[in-house]
Design a protein that fits this description.
The protein is built from six helices and 13 strands. The protein has about 260 residues and is of the alpha/beta class. It binds guanosine-5'-triphosphate and magnesium ion (MG).
């Protein structure tokens, strides 16, 4: 079997070559309906200058920046195109890149316009519906209840409704509550991380994509006989779900190492 090498020298699983170098950081994607304040939040969290405007689809492509938090290693933050059901034709290509960024994220910041009280639940439901459709329905979320300056103006954290994701109430434009969100995100990645090394007798494209999504892959190697060796860091909360999948990939699969 031929082994492809990408620019950085990492071998690529045949048939699953990825575009560009692997990003060795956990990815956090900002998602939500158009005009809810995603780009404003992206700018507030990263001190970047991404175009934000009171326009539908002000953002036409996904944008990535480094997010530094005191509790964990640097993360990659992604701003995305607004989610709607029937996307205007000319935005479909832009949405494709958003879709890939979202699917490979470890955490979603689901931004909601908290001032639109009457339609809030329905809008959250619609965005979650799109997330399900694109295969991102099981990625953990924090709901960001934005624009509190238009309501009670009180930044806070709260538990989600009926087992839903935790919430942070803030104003991306004024900056009130941004620190609460930084803490909430940092906590997600500060919890125990486990270092894993697995040898599997063959490469499974879907499993590999899953590993890349939930874990930070440090090395991978393909044997000429089709065997796959992968070494990664994964949050313990994800490990419970990942371990059985790896174990099921082959009867003699086993973790080669575990630490941290
Ligand atoms: N009052 C208030 N307005 C805000 C806040 N955050 C964002 N906005 C405004 O909401 C509008 C949309 O903001 P964007 O950040 O461009 O929203 P977006 O979700 O990125 O929009 P798309 O890229 O079109 O999907 C702008 O006029 C912002 O100034 C906030 O906390 N309070
Ligand atoms: Mg935007």
């Amino acid at each position: 079997m031929e082994i492809a090498l990408q620019a950085g020298g990492l071998p690529v699983c045949p048939g699953t070559a990825e575009k560009g170098p692997h990003i060795l950081s956990f990815k956090v994607a900002i998602v939500g309906r158009p005009n809810v304040g995603k780009s404003t939040l992206f700018n507030a969290l990263t001190s970047a200058e991404v175009f934000a405007a009171d326009l539908l689809f002000a953002t036409l492509d996904s944008t990535l920046r480094r997010l530094e938090l005191p509790q964990c290693e640097p993360l990659v933050l992604v701003d995305t195109v607004g989610f709607v059901r029937n996307l205007p034709h000319e935005l479909v290509a832009a949405f494709r890149s958003t879709l890939e960024e979202v699917r490979s994220a470890s955490l979603l910041l689901h931004v909601v316009d908290s001032a639109r009280d009457d339609q809030r639940a329905l809008m959250v439901q619609q965005v979650n519906g799109v997330l399900e459709e694109i295969g991102a329905g099981d990625i953990p979320q924090i709901e960001v209840m934005n624009k509190i300056d238009l309501t009670d103006g009180v930044p806070r954290r709260s538990a989600g409704e009926a087992g839903g994701p935790p919430r942070v109430w803030l104003s991306a434009r004024g900056g009130e509550g941004i620190d609460l969100l930084r803490d909430a995100v940092g906590e997600q990645f500060a919890e125990g991380v486990s270092h894993q090394r697995w040898h599997l007798p063959r490469c499974d494209g879907r499993l590999r994509a899953h590993v890349f999504r939930v874990a930070k892959v440090r090395h991978e190697h393909f044997d000429p006989d089709g065997g796959w060796q992968v070494e990664f860091d994964v949050r313990r909360r994800e490990l419970g779900q990942l371990e059985p999948l790896l174990a099921a990939a082959a009867t003699d699969a086993r973790p080669a190492a575990e630490s941290g």
